[in-house]
Design goal:
By secondary structure, the chain is of the alpha+beta class. It has helices spanning 7-11, 29-37, 90-97, 147-154, 162-174, 178-181, and strands spanning 40-47, 52-57, 62-66, 74-80, 83-87, 106-108, 116-123, 136-139, 189-197, 204-207, 216-221, 225-231, 251-257. It has one domain. Strands 2, 4, 5, 8, 9, 10 and 12 form a seven-stranded antiparallel beta sheet that branches. A hairpin with a 7-residue loop joins strand 6 (106-108) and strand 7 (116-123). The protein is globular, with a radius of gyration of 20 Å. It starts with 6 loop residues before the first helix and ends in a 23-residue tail after the last strand.
Length: 280
C-alpha cells in the first residue's frame, strides 16, 4: 500500500520504555561482589557435551557456570528448589532487564511470585558489549533448541537438543518419568550465546560465542534454586544449534558458599505483593 502523507512523522515518534525500573530496589553490588569473591567451592557438576545436568544452590550461595575447555553455549533452566511452579520467566526478565543480561541484572521468576531468583555478579564476557551486527552475549530471547521445531522444519528425530537434554536431566534429578518432567522445562537463559536480531528482517540470529576456556558467569542465588543446564549440541553456535558434527565442550556448574557474615543484612526477596484478587 502507498505510504500515508504523515508516514515520516509517525516513524519519528520517540520510543517509551515499557517497564521503567526506577522503583525496583537497587542491588547492593558491592556487598554481592565481596561475597562472591570470597565464596568457597563446595560442589561441582560437569555437564557433558550434548547433555544436561542439575545442581541445587541454596539462597545466598553462588552458582558459577564455566567453560572449562573451550567455547560452549549453555541453556539454563532455574526453579525454586522446593516448588517447580516458580521458575525462570525469560519474557519478564527480558522486559525488565533487556534482551541480554550481564553484571547487576536479575533473573525473575514466574507469576504469581515474580521476584528475583538470581543476580548476575560476575561476567568475564562483559567486555564484549554490542558488536557491529547488534550481537550481544547471554540472551533471554531464544527459547531453546527442541525436537518439535526440528521435526517441523526437517522431519527428523533429534534427541540431544537442549529441550530434550533438560527434560532428561530434570527427570533424573526428580526421579520421575520423562512425560512428568517435560512440562516443567521452560524458556532459557542462553549462557555464553551471542545473538541479536537482523536489522533488515528482524530475525533472531546467532554467531560464534566469544567464550573461551576459563570464561564464566556467577549468579548469586536469591532463593533456593534448582539449576538445570544443557551443553548445547551446537557447541559455540557459530553454524547450527542441533548438530552431531559441531565441536562441543563440557560446561561446569559449581556451588560456592560465601564465608559466614559475608551477606550481613541480606535476605531472600519475598514473593510479589499483588493480592491476586484480579478485580473479582
Amino acid at each position: 500500500m502507498n505510504e500515508p502523507e504523515d508516514a515520516a512523522a509517525r516513524r519519528a515518534v520517540a520510543p517509551v520504555i515499557c517497564y521503567p525500573t526506577e522503583a525496583v530496589p537497587e542491588v547492593d553490588m558491592a556487598l554481592y561482589r565481596d561475597a562472591v569473591a570470597g565464596a568457597v567451592p563446595v560442589e561441582a557438576v560437569v555437564v557433558p557435551p550434548r547433555d544436561a545436568a542439575a545442581i541445587v544452590v541454596p539462597a545466598g550461595s553462588v552458582l558459577r557456570i564455566a567453560c572449562p575447555e573451550g567455547p560452549q553455549v549453555g541453556d539454563l533452566n532455574l526453579f525454586h528448589a522446593r516448588n517447580l511452579s516458580e521458575r525462570f520467566y525469560s519474557g519478564k526478565t527480558r522486559a525488565l532487564q533487556g534482551t541480554h543480561v550481564s553484571v547487576g541484572d536479575r533473573l525473575w521468576s514466574s507469576f504469581p511470585c515474580l521476584r528475583p531468583m538470581a543476580t548476575v555478579v560476575t561476567d568475564t564476557l562483559d567486555w564484549y558489549g554490542v558488536d557491529r551486527f547488534g550481537g550481544r552475549v547471554h540472551d533471554v530471547i531464544g527459547t531453546r533448541c527442541d525436537p518439535y521445531t526440528g521435526n517441523l522444519l526437517s522431519g527428523g528425530q533429534y534427541h540431544h537438543c537442549c529441550h530434550s537434554n533438560l527434560t532428561r536431566a530434570l527427570a533424573g534429578h526428580l526421579d520421575v518419568p520423562l512425560d512428568a518432567a517435560e512440562p516443567h522445562v521452560h524458556d532459557v537463559l542462553n549462557v555464553f550465546m551471542c545473538t541479536g536480531f537482523t536489522a533488515d528482517t528482524g530475525q533472531y540470529f546467532m554467531k560464534a560465542s566469544p567464550a573461551r576456556a576459563g570464561d564464566h558467569l556467577e549468579l548469586l542465588a536469591e532463593i533456593d534454586l534448582l539449576a538445570v543446564l544443557s551443553a548445547c549440541p551446537g557447541g559455540d553456535c557459530g553454524a547450527e544449534h542441533s548438530s552431531d558434527a559441531a565441536a562441543c565442550f563440557p560446561l561446569l556448574m559449581e556451588r560456592r558458599d560465601p564465608v559466614p557474615g559475608a551477606l550481613a543484612g541480606w535476605a531472600p526477596p519475598p514473593v510479589n505483593g499483588y493480592d491476586r484478587s484480579h478485580g473479582a
